[in-house]
Amino acid sequence: MHPKAEAWFRRSTFAWSDWSESDLRAAKGTGRVSVALPALDEEPTVGEIVAGVVDLRDRTGLVDEIVVIDSGSVDDTAKVAAAAGATVFHRDDILPHLGTQPGKGEILWKALAVTSGDILVYIDSDLTDFRGTFVTGLLGPLLTRPEVRLVKAFYDRPLLDVSAAGGGRVTELAARPLLNAFFPHLSGVVQPLAGEYAARRDLLMSLPFAAGYGVETGLLLDTVAAHGLDAVAQVDLGHRTHGHQDTAALGRMAATILATVLRRAHPDDQVSRTLTQFRRDPDGAIEAYDHETAWPDRPPMSTVS
Asked: Is residue 161 predicted with pLDDT exceeding 80?
């Protein structure tokens, strides 16, 4: 590990159990916390997650607002989330004059426009074992360490037989090699693509949001570039169980992350916006098909009117 990364890892890595709910409530004071869930066809899981956050809110007062941003679901994701206690927005109804780009980054960016918390906690909507400690663990460093601006989660993933030392296929085959090659001082980040993280609103408002699945990598790189390594902390949340995508989908995700990293490592270079993949047609012949995998970053929300 790079010496700077190792030193950061030792001082900025925590576990969810390092803070009690009562300690966090005292540290929260009058600040507001918003929990935002991006969702696309997550009817089977989103209701239980929202209910868990509602329970945490009602028991502890650590959460003030629960928002689900629907990314165009064709199932009853929005209905289930609302019934469980979330305020639900469709992505196309937020800043409609700016249109809608595809992908996860767009949803997380638009969440800034419809939430009011001083701290935002992002939680993926496909978890099957949500626990309130996912939220409290991420809040810990932000509520107790003024220098921390962004908190990343890491966890074991038992369905893949993957411990925290292995961050999943796209992490190990794309994100980690890229960060080690171009930004070795970030080699201590256990799971750079984790979908659970929290940040101060003023930070998020000041940063561009990369498109699609590049958003997590972009926010990490841009936070460190603007504020240094000590603005980031990471917290062990235990384990996480969720759905998985096929290999072709993971390839497209990796291409988006590659574009995000290269734009920051070599901003003057052109990066291809498409990825060519192959499949067999019904007659058994091989055919090529292209996917767009890179879009312009959304600008800092503080500049949007």
From this structure: no
Q: How many CB atoms neighbour CB 283 within 10 A?
A: 6
Distance CA 224, CA 116 (A): 24
Query: Do 107 and 71 contact (CB within 8 A), yes or no?
Result: yes
CA dist., res. 60 & res. 40, Å (int): 29
Query: Selecting from 3.30.1600.10, 3.40.50.280, 3.90.550.10, 3.40.50.800, what CATH number does the domain 11-245 have?
Result: 3.90.550.10
Predicted local distance difference test score (pLDDT) of residue 283: 87
Contact 28, 62 (CB under 8 A): yes
pTM above 0.70, yes or no: yes
**CA–CA separation, 201 vs 73, rounded Å?**
27
Render pLDDT for 62-102 as a digit per residue (tens, 0 to 9).
999 999 999 999 999 999 999 999 999 999 999 999 999 98
69-72-76-79 Cα dihedral, nearest 10 degrees: 40
Two tokens at 103? 């992908």
Task: Measure the CA–CA gap between 169 and 42, rounded to whole angstroms.
Answer: 22
Q: Residue 95's CB: how many other CB atoms inside 10 A?
A: 18
The answer to whether 207 touches 231, Cβ cutoff 8 Å, is no
Ranges of each domain in the chain: 11-245, 249-292
Residue 243: predicted pLDDT? 57
Return the amino acid letter for 281: D
Contact yes or no for 154/235 (Cβ under 8 A) = yes
